[in-house]
Known about the structure:
The complex is a heterodimer of chains A (539) and B (318). By secondary structure, chain A is an all-alpha fold. Chain A has helices at residues 20-24, 29-57, 68-103, 112-134, 148-152, 157-184, 197-229, 242-276, 283-296, 312-340, 349-372, 374-380, 384-414, 420-447, 461-491. Chain A is globular. Mean pLDDT of chain A is 94; it is low at 534-539. Helix content of chain B is 36%, strand content 20%. Chain B has eight helices and twelve strands. Chain B has helices spanning 15-47, 63-92, 198-206, 213-223, 227-230, 261-269, 292-304, 311-316; strands spanning 99-106, 109-113, 119-121, 123-127, 131-138, 143-147, 152-156, 162-167, 172-178, 191-196, 248-250, 256-258. In chain B, a hairpin with a 5-residue loop joins strand 2 (109-113) and strand 3. In chain B, helix 1 (15-47) packs antiparallel against helix 2 (63-92) and helix 4 (213-223) crosses helix 7.
Amino acid sequence: MSTEQIVETREHYLNCAFGWKSWLLTTDHxxxxxxxxxxITFFFFLGGAFATLIRLELMTPPGDLFQAETYNKLxxxxxxVMIFFFLIPSIPSVLGNFLIPLMIGARDVxxxxxxxxxxxxxxxxxxxxxxxxxxxGVDTGWTFYTPYSSLFSNGQVVLTIVGIFIAGFSSILxxxxxxxTIHTMRAPGLTWFRLPxxxxxxxxxxxxxVLGTPVIAITLALVAIERLWHVGIFDPALGGxxxxxxxxxxxxxxxxxYIMVLPGMAVVSELVTTHARRRIFGYKFVAYSSIAIAVIxxxxxxxxxxxxxxxxxxxxxxxxxxxxxxxxxxVKVFNxxxxxxxxxxxxxxxxxxxxxxxGLFTMGGLTGLFLASLAVDVHVTDTYFVVAHFHYIMVxxxxxxxxxxxxxxxxxxxxxxxxxxxxRVAAVIIFIGFxxxxxxxxxxxxxxxxxxxxxxxxxxxxxxxxxxxxxxxxAVGYLLPMAYLIWSLKYGPAADANPWxxxxxxxxxxxxxxxxxxxxxxxxxxxxxxxxNASPSVR
Amino acid sequence: xQSGFRLFPEQASTLAPQVDYLYGFLIAVSAFFTALIVVxxxxxAIKYRRRPGREAEQVETVMGxxxxxxxxxxxxxxxxxxxxxxxFLGETVPPKGAQDIYVVGRQWMWKVxxxxxxxxxxxxxxxxxxxVKLTVAxxxxxxSFYIPAxxxxxxxxxxxxxxxxFQATKPGEYHLFCAEYCGTNHSRMGGRIVxxxxxxxxKWLGGYTDRTPAEEGRDLFVQFDCVSxxxxxxxQRCPPLGNLYGKQEQLNNGRSVLVDEAYIRESVLxxxxxxVRGYEPVMPSFQGQLTEExxxxxxxxxxxxxxxxxxxxxxxxx
Lengths: 539, 318
C-alpha cells in the first residue's frame, strides 16, 4: 500500500495537463469519465427541475398551475431527460469508464478514441434534445406511443428522437468498448472468476447496450419517418400497426431497465464487501445472476402490454418469464445480506447508500411481481403503482448506487476525502425523502389513479400531498452532496491510495491515479475481495 | 364514487374481490421478505459493527443456502403466476349471453352505444348482477377504458377491436378513466359508471326511441350499396350474409376463420385480406368512408341476420 501524502507535487491524471484542449481532446478513460460526470449531473438537475414542477402541480386536484399541454410536456421531458440522458449513462459512463481499466489493471479502455467519441455523441444528442425542449418541448411521454407520437402530437417529436438516436450510439460505443476491454485487457493472472463483480455486472450491461440499443434507434427512426413522410408503419389509418410499435419499443426499453440497474448492482457488490471487509458470499451466484438477468431480460417485454390485447397466451408466457427474471435479483439480495454476516461493518456514507439500495431495490423488485402477475397488472398498469415501482428500481436502486459509488470512489477520483458526517446526513435524508415521495404512490395506484394525469379526483389529494412533501425533502438530499463534494475539492483532506482499506486493483495505485494508472503493472494471484488475508493481492 | 381518504378501492364487480385476494397474497409475501431483509441487515449492522480489535470473519459460500434461496422464491413466483393467469383467463373470455355494449374512444371522450340504440358520452349505465361485454374501439390514438372499482382495463386500439367484460355487484357510481396517455386532455377523458338495479336500467333504456345500431346498419347497408352484391336477391358475387355471424367460414387458402366483429370489420376495410372460398376478390375497400361507429352499426346489422346465441340479444332487437 502506498503511503504517499504529497499530492500537490506528484503528477497524476488531473494535473498532468491543463487547459480546455487537454480535456476536450483527452483519450484518458478517467478524464472521459469526468466529462460524463459533469454532463449527466447537468441533466440530472434539469430532469429534477421538471420533477419539481410536476409535484407542485399535483399538490391540488384541479390542473391549476400549468396548462394541460404544459404539464404533459413536463412529465415527458422529465422521463426523456432522466432515462436517456441521466440513468442510462450514469454508472457505466462515469464510474464504469473511470474504474473498469483500473479494476482490471489496464492502462486504458481498448478503444480510447472511441470512448471520447462516445462522450461527443452524448453531448450532441443532449444538445439536440435541449434544443427540442427550448423550441417548445415534446408531449408524447418518454414512451412515444404511436400513432399519437407519429401523427397527432404537436411537439418537437422528430428533433427529440434525433437527439435520443444519436445519444443511443454513445451507449452502444461505451458497451462495445467495455466488452472488448474486459475480454482483452485484463492484467496477468486476472481470470474471469477473479474479477470484481463490478466487472461482471458491467459486462452484462454492455451486452444489453450493444444488442438492445440498435432496436430503439430503428424504432424511433420509423416513428420519425411516419411523422415526416406519412409512410404507414404504425398508424392504422395509413395501413400500419400501433401494437408493432409497442413490441419494438419495449424490446429495448425493458432491457433498458437492466442497463440502468445492473450497474447499480455492480456498485453495491463493491460497497458491501469494502465496508464490511468481507468476501462476497456466493461469488459465482452473484456473477451468473447478472448474466441471467441480461439474457432473460430480453424475453419479458410483453409484460408492458397485458391490456393492449396481445394474445392472452403470449401474455401468459411473458408473465411467467417476468416471474423468472425476479429470481436472479432475489439471489443477489440474499447474497449481499449474507455478506454482512460476521463482517466488520462500518456505516460510512457508501455503506448507507448500499443498504438503502438493498432495501429499496427489494421493494421495487417485489412490486415488480405484482406487475408480472396478470390479473393484478390489468388493474394497476398505467397507474401510479407502476410509477412507484419503477422509481423504486431506478431512483431507489440506481440513483442510490450511483451516489454510493461516487462517495466510495471520490477519494480515488478527486484525491480528496468528502466530509463524512454531511455525507451520512445526506444519505439518510435521501432515504427518508424517497420513501415519503414514492410509497404513497403505490397506494394511489391501487386506488386507481392513472399516471400522466394533469388533474385528478379529489379523494387522491392526501396521498399526492404526502408525495410532494417527500419530494421536497428528496430535493434537499440531492443538493447536499452537490455542495459538499464541490467543497471537498478545495477543502477536503488529501486522500491516500486506499482510504477504505479495500482490496481491488484500483486501490493499489495512488489517489488520484497517474495518467497511465499503474506505475508497475499489477499481476494478480488471488480471488477478488480477498479480505482477511495478510498477503497483498498485488506484488 | 366515495370521496375521502382510503387505502383500498371499492369492490364493485365479481372480479374485484378475487383480484384483491391475490393482491393481499402478494402484499403478505412482499412484507415478509422486506421485513426479513431489513431485520437481517439492521441486526448484522449492529452486531457486527466495526470495533477496535475485532476483525471480520470470512465465511465460505454455503451451497445449501444458495439452493434454498433460489428454490423458495421460484416456488412462490410459480404460485403468483398460476393464480394471476387463472384469474386473467377468466377475465378475458366473456360469458355467453353477456349484454353487448359498444364503446368508441376518441380524443378526448368515450362514446357508448347500448343495444337498443341509446347513446351516452363519458358515462356508462349498466345493470347490476348481469355480465356486460364491451367491444372497445378507438377512432384516433390508443386509449384505455379503465374502471378501478371493477379492476378491469382494456386498451382501445385504433384499427382493432378489443373486448372486455365485467359483472357489477353493487349499485352506485364509479370512476371511469382513460388510462393510456392520449394527448392534451388525457386526464379529463373520463366520467362515471352508473350501476343500476336491472329494473331501473330497463327503465333508463326504455325511455329511448332512437334507432337501434342494427337498424342504422341496415340503412348504411343500402346507402353504401352493399346490398347489390351481398343482398339475397342479387347475383351473389359475394358471400351471403344471412346466418353468418358466429360461424366458421372456409377461406380460399384452405384455412378457416371465425366470423366475429374483428373479421367483419377487416372485411369491410380490407376485403382482400381473407377471401371466402369460391369467391373472387372483387369487393372495394371502405377504408376512410365509414366512421368507427358506422362500422359498428354495420356489424350489428350483420349480427342481427343471425340468430343470437341466447335469447338475450333478441330481446333488445325491436
